[in-house]
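hiii, so i know i said id send this last week but things got crazy w the move. better late than never?? heres the sequnce for the chain we talked about at the cafe, plus the structure i predicted for it. fair warning i was half asleep when i ran it
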Amino acid sequence: MTQRSARGVRRLLSLVNRKQLKRVLSRMLDETEFLSPFGVRALSRFHKDHPYEVHVNGNTNRVDYEPAESTTGSSAGIQTGAGPSGFRKLSPR
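okay and structure toks below
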């Protein structure tokens, strides 16, 4: 998108169109989702009450929301026993 004004030409390059960008920003700037008083969260606050789980070959892998500092003691914020993806292996249900 190109926009001309008295200040000159401004360009916006985006992988999404204007309508999609508004949808992305509405979630990113929502305090119940990604926006916090300290910046943008890496994981939506929605996951505090709804952890993300993936079930593969009888194993449950889960990503928990941990506000501020990690509770696992890992400097990377990845839970103990987790692989590089940040998932941790849980017991089958």
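btw Strands lie at 2-5, 8-11, 35-36, 39-40, 52-56, 59-63, 88-90. thought thatd interest u
miss u guys!!
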